[in-house]
Automatic annotation (TrEMBL):
Residues 260-410 form the LamG-like jellyroll fold domain. This is beta-fructofuranosidase. It comes from Streptomyces mesophilus. Residues 1-18 form the signal peptide. SUPFAM superfamilies: Arabinanase/levansucrase/invertase, Concanavalin A-like lectins/glucanases. GO terms for biological process: carbohydrate metabolic process.
Amino acid sequence: MLALAICLGFLTPLTAHPADAAQSTLSNPGFETGDLTGWTPTGTAFNGSVTDDPGWGWGCCFNHEGTHHLWGFASGGDASTGTLTSEPFTLTGTGMVSALVSGGRDENQLYVALTTLDGDVLHKATGTEDEAYRRVTWDAREHLGEQLRITVVDRATGGWGHINLDDVRVGVDKPPAPGEEGLAAHWDFAEGQGTTTAERISQGADPISYVFNDAVYKPDSDPLWNAKRPEDGVLSGALLFDGYSTWVSRAASQTQLPTDGMTLQAWVAPRAFEWGDEGKPSAIVNQQDKNARRGFSLGVGRHGMWQFGVGTGDAWYETQVPKTAALAAGKWAHLTAVFAPGQGAMRLYLNGEQVAETAVPTTARLAKADVPLVIGRHNQPALINGTFAVNMFNGLIDEVKIHTSPLASTAVAAAHAKDLQTFSGGTIPQARMAMDRSRYDGDRYRPGYHFTAPNHWMNEPHAPIQVGGKYHLFYQHNSHGPYWHNIAWGHAVSEDLVHWRDLPVALAPTADSVAPDGVWSGASTLDENGVPVLLFTAGNDAQRPNQATGLARPVDPSDPDLVEWKMHPTLVTSQQADLDVGAGRKVRFGDFRDPFVWKQGDTWFQLMGSGVQTTSGTDVGGTALLYTSKNLTDWTYSGPLMVGDVAAHPKTGQVWELPTFLPIGKDDQGRERRALLVNPAFPAGPGEYSSKFTYYWVGTWDAGARRWTPDTTEPKLLDYGEHFTGPSGLVDDKGRSLVFSIAQDRRTERAHYDAGWAHNAGLPIELSMRPDGDLGIRPVAEVSRLHSGDPLLDITAPTSVAGANERLAGIKGDMLHIKLTMERGSADTFGLDVLRSPGDEERTRIFYDAPAGQFGVDRTRSGNNSSTEGDLGTHKGPLALTNGELTLDVFVDRSSIEAYANGHKSLTTRAYPFRQDSLGLRLFGDGGAVKSMTVWKMGNMTD
């Protein structure tokens, strides 16, 4: 610590409390005369040492004040010795004395001191073996009114045998506030608003980076400040770091750190833990260049394992807590990290108690890293998709302190006890950091009534289950940011399928569990006692395959929200390489995911998505592997339910994900009819087909014989819009087979970053069996509960297209439900334009091509602002009219558009208009007619 601990000194940034030398009674305090006027030298160490050089020739830069400064090396290198003494001065003003000091380190032979006129040393400091100045500040208030001197001593002759001095300030610097003695820096995050936060020692304002400081798709908004609560004591009004876009930084030159001893302290409440890309922790506070073995880092790694590292230039020393001291998601913890080379140790303390210690050499010294000091973000982060810097903290941070000395265990315990006294009842407060949907208010593309994750990333909703009259929905979620990584199970609950309430994450990757690396998609069912059970894809990268089926049960089955879940300690199904998938074939080993589970009679059935290859390794197609069980934990393999043909149908993929197998009625012979829905995956390529399609087959199912007989092996598209993927489903208490899906947003990674969210669910749909045996689909009836007020338009009698358009002219909106029946008449192509600009520059066209017998969407004018697709194109598929009529249910929800036609087919698509006025509706189709049309404004899913 530069020998300052023994004399109660502390460091402050170079820019803190700028002084006017005229306020000081010290003569020539910054050597701006260009010589030693006002100073008395002895020996030769300082002859000719006043210089205006900005750098030292083999490096840069002194960062001195003014034009001149005292560079000890300039007077003959390291060999010369001597002293330099100032004229006496009277200590006035604040009683603080500070100076810029650099050069060699030798506490006994090489130093700058504040002394009495008799030569008694009151405070002293040495260099850090660095020519760049750092400011040393001494609290000399007990000597106010006395006459003192500054004395520079150089009796060192070896390497780094020189010392440098500049800008001595007397009575100008602000004294430390009570409780801030010995602090180099302190961020208390007390602002509660704004895009900067004050560092209390320097009184400098440090910027807070946050994605919506300068928002792209919504109005600007402040970083996520916690509301102030007096009962939370020192943790009142903390800053919430969102996990991908929030960090605090200050320039390297503003941060002066002790080198031979320091202490870091911070209160943190992690919301979740990162995967730990490249082995790097999520930084809490750091100023590091680990590759150069310089700087320091306090951070939290996978599963809450936190660590502290210090670089000395020639080595990087690190200490980490044991598992028993790992952080818990959602709870405040007080962390203290001590670097005490004088005692040969680095130590970690959790809530005031020591939990780890690692030996370091007594000669170890912190080597400064010439990079910004950053809170909440790693100095050298890994990148995801070339856009997202990871190794970032996700959660609350408060009371970050950097001490200029290594605190003793008693001091650490006392500091923690002092903080506890500020809390109501002396108890650490609750960490309040639920994801707030309002941060996206005003986003022109974020859906309002389709289910979205409260923040950040979601992909497929899955494992829907109805318990106690409530629908529970889970979904793939990354709470760290809008990108695929760190996947856990988000959770929401609804009483009507369309209004949803957010609940805490249900399952997350956990150390020493069956899923340490990811909790991927799965299913739900009720056990023999009617208690809900979740089956999930357990990610464990230490195994091959890294995918298997895990099981979880509610901790409290009587909780109507089923908030807390506990994983079963062992896997329930694992893929075997020798599974029998047919003669001359083998299972695609390593692809084994997304269980779908249901019960018939006393047997549970499980489908697992996988693929089949020839024994020589050629892909045959995707498959759904069938297992059975009597107790949900012991499963027997039955064989493939069905195997695809990727050669004949390339878009069906080499692997099937999310197999969903739902009843749709019985045929004339009383046989159970089911629909098998799959999400094609393409681990062998081509990527152009990924995340675009859901295929289905309809057939008969014999549970007793474990036999599925599709009507045809020809796959059929469920949705023609190329955005409906990731099916999951359940049978509810009304006997309905319901399907949930993910509506792919197909935006660029930069757009995901700027927007702060990715993807949304489609509306839940109901499956049925049509008279011709094919699959019928329609939105659930509950969507009408989203209607806001009376219809904006209601046409109940046959009307010409032109007449209907006159009535539509004043209707605008981007959250609408349109129910429309059109008669073809003599029209070849007819339908509805939505999100249309007044001059037709932009619009999304939902059409029926009568000569071709096809239903589709024309997106060539939809607008592709932020879309990955340059040419949005036209998507369509076969559909027969019903008595020459097309009946549509169209749902416009900002960028999300769904259309359901004749209860038979759907299309899900996206539009990202550039124009703010692309809000209109217009019909087209000369020769056609409008039989009926109703338009409603829609409310929000959270209303």
